[in-house]
Specification:
Largest sheet: 6 strands, mixed
Distance between the termini: 71 Å
Structural class: alpha+beta
Number of strands: 14
Helix content: 25-40%
Number of domains: 3
Length: about 375
């Protein structure tokens, strides 16, 4: 009732008369969202809300590059679906709007949100109740993977069948390096707050998201279980040394988009009935995966090191990925081929510096 009264009062003022030209439902939703945002903020300050600190709410502007309007059942919107990949939604005070139906809605939507992105593209998002996922159509795979996320290489991956690979960071990925670099340069030239700057930011984000989806899809398709570190990505993006070096590392963490990649990977493993295991991130790069000796911390510029216990010379990233896979538990097949292959998976190969990022190396 309070929200409705606030919106009604605002409509009667000359400065806010334009609010009467649109449906009242999105306005009421905006007021409720603001109320919830302030509750979260004050509860976070007092300690009543657990988790990381919540910042003060930021009010939207009519000049924001991204605009949204949410309609609930109260607004009595209607949705019609066709068999030709086209849908129609009737929005109050707007009328019927056609949209491309990406997939059939599994149930009646409880709300619909119209989104306008900075590049002028409109999207329609529905909140629906999704039934239990069907059995995955992917063939069962006995292979497990351990992933160590990094900045020099986006990921070092070892597999329980004795193969391993490194996936180059998208910033240097040859297939899109020039295009992404051009978009980044264009982004820095745009005036802050301008529509063109927002459009360029979207192009960079779309290239990164496409990379994340493709890598996550391949990992889920080829492996029955995937092991990753339980990283605090937000904390990593805020930590690090002071000065230019620390800013560079934090910027690189944001650029890599680890959090987005891990969310996509989790969604895809759930959808296809695969297993995602998160392991304790303590010391995977400091522990020798061959003998288990904790060798101590090392600066980031040390990419290979020799174990003080067994003398093995290991690759920092492959060693960490192997420790992650073994800690997750699904890698019992490591000893199934007649003898341990851990030294082969963890060792530092001098020839790897020029290895193409798409190649796999087999530990025979």
């Amino acid at each position: 009732m309070l929200q409705s009264r606030l919106v009604t009062q605002a409509k009667t003022t000359p400065a806010r008369a334009w609010l009467g030209e649109v449906s009242a439902t999105p306005l009421q939703q905006a007021v409720r969202d603001a109320d919830q945002a302030y509750r979260n903020f004050f509860n976070s300050l007092s300690g009543k809300r657990k988790g990381r600190r919540v910042g003060a709410p930021r009010f939207k502007s009519r000049r924001d590059s991204r605009q949204t309007a949410r309609f609930t059942r109260q607004s009595r919107f209607e949705v019609h679906q066709t068999t030709h990949g086209v849908g129609k939604v009737r929005i109050p005070k707007v009328g019927w709007v056609r949209f491309a139906l990406s997939r059939p809605l599994p149930s009646e939507p409880s709300s619909v949100t119209v989104i306008r992105e900075a590049d002028g593209t409109y999207y329609v998002s529905f909140v629906v109740e999704v039934p239990e996922p069907k059995q995955s159509q992917l063939a069962h795979s006995g292979r497990a993977a351990g992933i160590d996320l990094g900045l020099n290489d986006f990921a070092a991956i070892v597999y329980s069948d004795g193969t391993r690979e490194k996936v180059t960071n998208p910033r240097h990925f040859k297939a899109r390096a020039r295009k992404l670099a051009r978009a980044q340069r264009e982004f820095t030239r745009r005036q802050k707050g301008s529509a063109n700057r927002a459009k360029t930011r979207i192009k960079v984000a779309q290239a990164r998201l496409d990379f994340h989806h493709k890598l996550a899809s391949r990992l889920v398709r080829e492996n029955q279980a995937v092991a990753v570190e339980a990283l605090n990505v937000v904390g990593l993006a805020r930590s690090g040394a002071q000065g230019a070096r620390g800013r560079g590392i934090r910027r690189s963490v944001h650029d890599a988009g680890w959090g987005t990649f891990l969310r996509i990977l989790e969604d895809k493993t759930t959808e296809h009935g695969r297993t995602l295991v998160r392991v304790n991130p303590a010391h995977p790069s400091q522990t020798c995966s061959v003998c288990g000796v904790l060798d101590g911390p090392k600066p980031l510029n040390i990419r290979t090191w020799q174990c003080q216990g067994c003398g093995a010379v290991v690759d920092r990233d492959y060693n960490a990925a192997l420790n992650i896979m073994v800690a997750a538990g699904p890698a019992e097949t490591l000893n199934a081929r007649g003898g341990s292959i851990r030294p082969r998976l963890a060792e530092a190969a001098p020839s790897e510096a020029g290895t193409h990022p798409a190649t796999h190396q087999t530990a025979a």
